[in-house]
Amino acid sequence: MPASNRTSAFVTVNGIRLHYLDWGGQGPALIFLAGLGSTAYIFSHFAPRFSDRFRVLGLTRRGHGDSDYPETGYDPDTLTEDIHQFMDALRIDRATLIGHSIAGVELTHFAATHPDRVEKLVYVEALDDRRSLPAIDEQDPLRHIQLQAAPSPSTPHTLAEYLADLKRNAPGFAEIWSETWEEEIAHGVMVNEAGVVVDRMPDAVGDALVDNLVRTYAPKRLAASLPTLSIYGQRKKKLSEAYTAEQQAAYEQYYQSVVLPGFHALIADFQGRFPQAKIVVIPNGHHYCFMAQEELVYAQMRSFLLG
Questions:
Q1: Neighbours of 79 (CB within 10 A)
Q2: Separation between Cα atoms, residue 19 and residue 10, nearest integer Å
Q3: CATH class of 3-144+203-306
Q4: Cβ distance 11 to 17 under 8 Å?
Q5: Which of 93, 111, 169, 237 would you call most buried, defined as having the most Cβ atoms within 10 angstroms of its Cβ?
Q6: φ, ψ (nearest 5 deg) of residue 65
Q7: pLDDT tens, position by position, for the chain (307 residues)?
Q8: What count of other Cβ atoms lies within 10 Å of the Cβ of residue 62?
Q9: Quick one: DSSP state of residue 4?
Q10: CA distance 154 to 161
Q11: How many C-beta atoms lie closer than 10 Å to residue 50's C-beta?
């Protein structure tokens, strides 16, 4: 479905105003939930592909994009209630929740709290228990090695300048750079009082979300057995040739002895809590796999949703 056919709208729930996109379609509801720092616009190319068989929506959580930025409410209970009241406002009785990245916490927490409102769950690179990751990252032998000077502070005065800085300073996004990516970024920035384009999300909001959804969240147990699909990207850092042979060998040892066992432990833990889940692992997958490995992810999701 062309982006021009989508509806951009707002709904007041739980005392705040949230932004959402509606790509239309008939049939059971799909609600896409974005990761940390992202908005419903991140799904603008991918989500409409399901509108031939489903009603497709994307919700932007509080503290993101065009939604409100209250000082509080960045805990799993409140975020879950936001989704609950969003469904009530749009008169959606049951929905399939599709979450990327930290939205995995919202999927698990919502399903445990309101299992009667969930049709299916789709986790897209969406770990719901990240408590073990800091210890894994701390063992990275390249963690504190800086190959080049940090980029100079930037003061972009236009969106084009901001995008150019991001493209230069974050080459890891090159694989997914697109009109969708640029539109997504445009809804996550603002012009401050000095006329400089900056991230719209306050540091306090980001810190609260990381504390509540990344560092400390222990997944709630689900009483109901819901159809579940979880897609993981098995990633290995692409090392610059500037690293010495010794440094590259140290990273390889770390990857084989720490990263891979940790990755498999996370999958085993999820499978233990969701024994009915279908697990899909993408070799050399990207965190934004629904963009970088779009056809593979789309095929897996469509088969699961229609099966």
A1: 25
A2: 4
A3: alpha beta
A4: yes
A5: 111
A6: 50, -130
A7: 344 589 999 999 999 999 999 999 999 999 999 999 999 999 999 999 999 999 999 999 999 999 999 999 999 999 999 999 999 999 999 999 999 999 999 999 999 999 999 999 999 999 999 999 999 999 999 998 877 666 667 899 999 999 999 998 888 889 999 999 999 999 999 999 999 999 999 999 999 999 999 999 999 998 889 999 999 998 888 888 889 999 999 999 999 999 999 999 999 999 999 999 999 999 999 999 999 999 999 999 999 999 8
A8: 24
A9: G
A10: 9
A11: 24
**Range 156-171 burial, b when 16+ CB lie within 10 A, else e:** beeeeebbebbeeeee
Name the token pair of 262.
């940790």
CA gyration radius, the chain:
20
Q: Which regions of 125-271 does DSSP assign to beta strands (E)? A: 189-191, 197-199, 228-234
Token pair, residue 63, equals 């503290």
